[in-house]
Amino acid sequence: MNKVFTITATEYSKYVKYFSLMDNSQLLEIANFKVKNYLKDNSISNIDLFLESCNCYYYDIFYLDFFSKFFFKKSFVRFKFNLIVALHESDYENFNNMVNNSTITKILLDILKFVFIFITSPLWLIYKLLKSKIK
Amino acid sequence: MSAIVIGSGITGSNVALSLLEKGESVELWDFGKKENLNTINSANFIDFKKNLEHSVENLIGARNNQFPNPYNQKLFQIPPLRNFILDKQQVNNEISNLNNFDIYQSFNKGGLANGWGANCIPYNETDVHDWGIDYKKFSLSQKKIFKELNVSNINDNINISFNIVNYGEESSIILDNRDDYFLKKFTQNYEFFKDQKFEIGKSRLAIKNSNTEDSCKLTSRCLWGCPQNAIYNPIHSTLKKCKSFDKFKYFDNRKVSHFKVKDSKIDKIVFFEDSTLKIKKNNSKIFLCAGAVQSGIIFNKTCTNNNINLNRFTTGLMDTKKVKIVYLLPKMIGKKISYKSIQFNRLVGAMNEIYENRNEYIHLEFLHLNSLFYQPLINNLPLPLRLSKDIFYKFYSSLGVCTYFLPDTLNDYNKIRVNKRNEIEINYNENKEKLLLDKKIEKRIKKYLLKMSAIPIKTIRYDSGAAIHYAGTIPMGINDKFPVNTIGQVKFINNLIVADASIIPRLSSKPVSVNAASLGRYIVYKNT
Fold first, then answer.
1. Taking 70 as the threshold, does the pLDDT of residue B68 lie above it?
2. What pLDDT shows up at residue B63?
3. Which chain B positions have a beta carbon within 8 Å of A28's beta carbon?
4. Distances in whole angstroms, Cα of residue B415 to Cα of each of A126, B326, B427, B477
5. Rounded distance, CA B161 to CA B153, Å?
6. Burial class (CB in 10 A: 0-12, 13-18, 19+), B196
7. In sequence order, which residues have a C-beta less than 8 Å from that of residue B222 and are 6 or more positions away?
8. For strand B285-288 and strand B2-6, is the pairing parallel, antiparallel, or unpaired?
9. Which residues of chain A have pLDDT under 50?
10. DSSP at B159
């Protein structure tokens, strides 16, 4: 498998934090197996490569989640986000954690965060594009 | 007389039992996989999830085709653990082109009945008035089948307002506080709903609810399999009864390809036994009960292989298109979820709507979202995934789904056929009138949901074929254009009787399975 697309332990821990999940190394293994299968059936576009290269810091995930929801719906990164959520949903401990840990305060804070993401998204995109050009 | 029954799903097994009760010798042929269900005796779905050794593999599936790209993901696909009832590979091998038809074809023992959750709403005289059948005799068959399936005994306004006979004898299912709240809202506004001719009542499910050892106690993991066999499954009830007869033989590895016809009779049966093609000389009456799609394929292949021109006959393919409206019950936000509530709908709705110049019954089911696999729904919310997930789990105890089904009629385009390359092809297109009917019903239901203090959120339309209420592939009727007469007899093959949903000439919105089984029993009565 192309190493660019493997979910590394570091990347996984960022997703776990982002989606407020519980760490489970077995699920990471399964996720990578499913990524491998996905790559067998789906071609990777330049947009996918670009979005993957954007995924450097924790805050980048907010922008990637936002962009992949509204603009790059077919992107690999969107598949990956959904896969992480789906896998954790099927895990008993994680499922209970999801049910019990959603609060109105957290949702309101997230809405504010995404308003900020929405406003700053063009700047983030320009920055990432320039960065990739320089590279 | 001896009979061979093809297919051991809900219809085939009941046809076989009816024949045996009449004193006939019966061979039941099926091509089914064994149920590979892990029947851990857990208290509810959540514990079931905990006890699964490989929960991810069981819930999402080992292969990616059970976790498709989120871009084209469908909401509420059959839970993957139940995917063993479907065999897409077989479908692909057998059918070259599925134009606009999302087929669910089962090669499991017990057929799709093995994984069903359908309501049992009997066809009434209006539904069958133009079929040319003897309704009195048909209703006797219905009574027998409803007993066999353990359908709930429900007496409510749906029966009175829509002329539905209560054939059920089983105890009804227990409602939870959410259903009670929903019903309370309905009752409070009853004058309004009465004017609109809209009714809500308890579900008519084929589940043992009486206080017996095998009755329903778990009620939250039904779609993943019932360890107590409380939900009707032919394997655990009807087929078992058949096996108690000396004159019964069960061949569970025979898949019929087609028949060879000589002097207007089936002379030989061409079939696969353990994947080996075999031919058997035939002297029996054959009852075709393999389900509308599979029976349609066998019939079409038979006609092609015997140079029988089907063009002068009406054939077809129908399915009750299903549409889901997701709604929010604000009063239930933050309320504790009762995992004892079953995944199946506990409430059903009924209303009338005009379709193709007929006042059609429209069947609705209300299901509270409390035990399914949610990622597809979360993915469908119009927000970033993180926010969607949190919002969903905050509100999910108050989410529900109203599913409605649309009736269908035969038309020239929708059918199974053998093409010039001798391949099976399925063609299906929704007609404009059906699309208009869909919109009219959606508008009405949204209004009713609001009246019951529920907020409609999203309408999800499934592809044609996804309702799994297939019918009409070899329709029966009084006049010459139908290939089957009103007692299931194929007009040009004397010893071939079609006794499943294939012969239904007009499809009501009511779930088809229980009615197809009743029709099968009626056909047996008329042919013995």
1. no
2. 63
3. none
4. 54, 32, 6, 17
5. 17
6. middle
7. B117, B207, B231, B342, B343, B344
8. parallel
9. 1
10. H
Contact status of B335 with chain A (Cβ, < 8 Å) = no
Q: What is the pLDDT of residue B443?
A: 97
Q: What is the C-alpha radius of gyration for chain B, rounded to an integer number of angstroms?
A: 23
Q: If pLDDT is split at 50, 70 and 90, which confidence band does B76 have? A: low
Query: How many whole angstroms separate alpha carbon B222 and alpha carbon B216?
Result: 9
Q: Which long-range contacts does A53-59 make (Cβ < 8 Å, 24+ apart)? A: A53/A128, A53/A132, A53/A135, A54/A128, A54/A132, A55/A11, A58/A14, A58/A17, A58/A18
Of A69, A98, A103, the CB nearest to B384: A69
> What local confidence, expressed as pLDDT, does residue A99 receive?
80
Q: What is the per-residue pLDDT across A108-133, written as a single tens digit (0 to 9) for each?
A: 999 999 999 999 999 999 998 988 87
Tens-digit pLDDT profile for residues B158-216: 999 999 999 999 998 888 888 899 999 999 999 999 999 999 999 999 988 888 888 88
Reported in sequence order, the residue ranges of B312-435 that DSSP labels E, i.e. its strands, are 322-328, 347-355, 358-368, 399-405, 408-409, 415-418, 424-427
What are residue B206's DSSP bridge partners?
A: B151
The predicted complex's ipTM stands at 0.94
Alpha carbons within 13 A on the beta-carbon side of B133: 33
Taking CB atoms and an 8 Å cutoff, what residues of chain A touch B46?
Answer: 92, 95-96
Q: Which of A38, A67, A68, A69 is the best substitution to test chain B (most B C-beta atoms within 10 A)?
A: A69
Interface of A with B in 43-62 (CB under 8 A): 62
- φ and ψ at residue B120, rounded to 5 degrees: -110, 90
Which of A65, A89, A90 lies nearest to residue B384, judging by beta carbons?
Answer: A65
What is the C-alpha separation between B306 and B301, in angstroms, rounded?
Answer: 8
Show Cβ contacts of residue B147 under 8 Å, excluding neighbours closer than 6 positions: B167, B169
- Which pLDDT score is estimated for B380? 81
> In this structure, are residues B485 and B356 in contact, taking their beta carbons and an 8 Å threshold?
no
- From the centroid of its chain, how far is CA B370? 22
Beta-carbon count within 10 A of B213 CB: 8
d(CA B11, CA B154): 23
- Looking at chain B, which residue has its C-alpha nearest residue A15? B386
Q: What is the dihedral of CA B210, B213, B215, B220, to 10 degrees?
A: 140
Instruction: Enumerate residues 97 to 126 of chain B having a beta carbon within 8 A of any beta carbon in chain A.
Output: none
**Residue reference for tokens 């990956």:** A80
Cα distance between residue B80 and residue B87, in whole Å: 12
Which of the pair, B215 or B126, is modelled with greater confidence? B126
The C-alpha of A97 sits at a distance from chain B's nearest C-alpha, in angstroms, of 10
Q: Cα–Cα distance between B517 and B461 in angstroms, integer? A: 28
How far from each other are the two terminal CA atoms of chain B, in whole angstroms?
Answer: 9
Task: Indicate yes or no: CB of B50 within 8 angstroms of CB of A110.
Answer: no
Distance of CA B244 to CAs A33, B25, B252, Å? Answer: 48, 13, 16
Phi-psi region of A101 (alpha: psi -120 to 50; beta: other; left: phi over 0): alpha
Residue with tokens 């391949």: B423
Q: What is the pLDDT of residues B239-264, one digit of tens each?
A: 999 999 999 999 999 999 999 999 99
List b or e across B293-310, with b for residues whose CB sees 16 or more CB atoms inside 10 angstroms: bbbbbbbbbbbbbbebeb
